[in-house]
Each structure stands twice: as C-alpha cells, then as structure tokens.
Specification:
heterodimer; A: alpha/beta; 6-stranded mixed sheet; B: 0% strand
Amino acid sequence: MIKIKNLTKKFNDLVVLKDVNLDIKEGERVVIIGPSGSGKSTLLRTINGLEIPTSGEVYFKDQLIEPTKPSINEVRKHIGMVFQSFNLFPHLTILQNITLAPVELKLMTKEEANTKAKNLLNRIGLLDKASAYPNQLSGGQKQRVAIARALAMNPAVMLFDEPTSALDPEMVKEVLDFMKELASEGMTMVVVTHEMGFANEAASRVIFMDEGKIIEDDTPDNFFNNPTKPRVIEFLNKIIK
Amino acid sequence: MSFIENIINVLIRDQRYKIILEGLKNTLFITTGGLIIGITLGTITALIKIHPHKTWLGKSLKSIANLYTTVIRGTPVTAQLLLIYFGIFASVRSLNAVMVAIIVFGINSGAYVTEIIRGGILSIDKGQLEAARSLGLSYSQSMKKVILPQTVKVVLPSIINEFIALLKETSVAGFITVIDLTNAFRLITSATYDAFTPYLMMSIIYLLLVIIIASFAKRIEKRLKID
C-alpha cells in the first residue's frame, strides 16, 4: 500500500533520512520507534506529503506522492493523520471539526457527515460534547476527537505522529485503547510512538530507526525478546519496560 | 460674549450646524468606505504575501504586493491625496472629491491592514494548516475554512485601532476640497474669527466618535470570545 524508495531528506545541511526503503502492506500495523532526532516523524510526514523528499520517492497504492502538485489533495483523502498536538480547529465545535472535510470536499452531504460524526462520537463516548469547543475538552478527549476526525474520511491508512506524547499520563490509556481497537479491526496503521507497551501489544511489525536509517524491522516478539543488533539492545536497555 | 454664546454662535447661527453635519457625514463616509476597501485590499495583499509562491506569476504578484506596501507606507497620505486628486484626476471634470478621498484612504489603509492580517495569519499555529491539508483540503480551502476565521479574532483589536487612526487621518481630506469635519470647522473659524471654540468643539466630536467606536469594538470582541 505504501512504498518508500531510496528516500533522503535534508534540512539545509542536516541529513534527517538517509536512503530509506520501506514497504507497508494493507492491514499491517507498523510501529516506528527510536531515539529523538532519528527521523521517525519526518519519515511518517513524507507519507502524506507534509515533508518534501530531497531525493527518492514515496508511493501510495502505486501512485507517486507529489507534495507540490494538486494531486496531493486526492491522495490525502485516503490517508488519515493524527498529530502530537491534536491540531483540532479551535473556532469550530467538535461536530464541525469532524464534518468539515467530508462536507467541504463534497464526499458527503451535511446530513450524512453529521450522522457519521455522531456515530464516531458515540463510539468514543463523547456524543455529549458534539457542540462543545475543543478548549472545553481534556487532552485525551481532544486526541480521540482528532482520531475520529481522521476516521470520518474513511481512510485506507492511519498515520499517528507521537499521539500520546503531549498527554497527561492519566490520559494516555484512553487514546491507546482507542488505537488498539482500530488495530484489532484491521485498520492499516503507521504509528510513531515511545509507547513500548503499545508496540508490543498492537503492532504487527516494529521498525527501529537511528540517525536517519532503519536499523531493525521485525515482529514485536523478536524485537523485544530476541534483539540482535547492538544499537537496539542498547536502546532497549536504556528504557524502562 | 460668554462661552455659551460662543458655542451657540459656532453651532447654530447662520445654520452652521448644516455644514457641521455635512462634515460629519463626509468624515464617517470616507472612514467607513476607506476601511471597507482597506480590509478587502489588505486581505488580498496579505494572502499574496504569505502564499508559498513557486510560479512566475505568483512571484510577480508578490513583488507588486511588496512595492504597494512600501510605497504607500513610505509616503504621507496627504501626498497621496494631492497627487491622485490634482495630479492624476485633474483633467476629469465634475470629479467627486469624496469618492476620490474614499479610494485614496482605502488604498492607504489597505497597506497597513496588509501587515496586520499578515501578522495575524502568521500567528496561527502551523499545525492548523497541516491538519487541514492532511484532511485533503486544498490550500485555499484551508485558508478560507480554517486559517482566516481564526485570524479574524486575532486581528480584530488591531483593525479597530486602524479604524480609529483612519478616522483621525481623514482630517486632511480638506486638502482636496472635501468638506469633512475638520474643513467644516475651519470654514466656521474663518467666518466667526474665533479659533478656540470651533476647534474645541471639533476635537470633542472626534473624541466622542472614537469613544463610540471603541465601545462597539469591546462588545464585538466579547461576543467573539469563545473561551
């Protein structure tokens, strides 16, 4: 579904991604972990064209992603994205946050979008917040709404960029539980996270990155229980499990 | 003559209130007309300035926008009035000086509003545009539905400030024969040989207008607050 070929990304002189190759198939739940500055988020953001590759290509369902061309809008309709800082639209109600894109892009009528949004809100237990504004919600609620907003587009794949890093510790679980639920339903997911528990439990594949390269690409079982690469062993030893 | 008599002399005698009302009408007309043009022009110019242009056309538009704000903000509005009214439209007969004033103050205000709105747009977290774009909205849809509505709230105090500044700036409209509030009282001063009372009255009227605008602004700001 997603094919990344010889991807290199530089910010001025800083090389963030070095000749990365990656294939992600439908139904896979890929968790990308690694130290800060390893290029995880940048890699994720090139998949929906938020970052422009310095060289190399990214394909979504065999279509080349060209971030500066109008075709990018069509591709993005099928790729849901969840950000660390939620990025809900503060001037719109929760319901409007979810219905804006489907209605504006004429994928649904207003009624259809409202029904869809209410179903999603009901599912995350926030139907009573439909007419509230984002700043009236807790961090965990905001992030679940942000996930619902992306889901309202019926995406083929969901990208998560450190979705729990900006949350209070007590709110991490509700977001991860929702993500696990999606995973169990077979949603294709690519998740950049520091939550090892989530990686162990929900991933079908763990990718470890360091200094702009993919160091390890394995099942969670092998990755956590039988690591072979010294850099991975060093990383796992430093974190609290 | 007592001060009261002076006031009656300035405001009432020889139906002077008529010219004052005419001046008030023109001042308000030029200010609001100028502000409407200014906001329209300023929004368009700000959008041109912040757009990440890659094409030849886009880059040219950006150069024109930069030239516009540099020239307009770099010259006095009086010079712009005189140049456009006497210099450019000199040959046009039956030219409506009030209309020219509205256009000139609109163009002038637009340059300042450009910078207000540009600053407002840049103050919106860049995650907002990323979120909108990642949902598949185009750049212009994202601007219209996500960025600009948030910008309105941010720039409102500065726009009100611009409104107040513009109101007072229009006092130079008399340079191109417009009977605005200032020019009206100037004429009364010439007729009454009294400078103190008319100019004091004039200042009080400007002050009252500003107080009214400011109180309106406060009400609107309160209503826009969703916190």
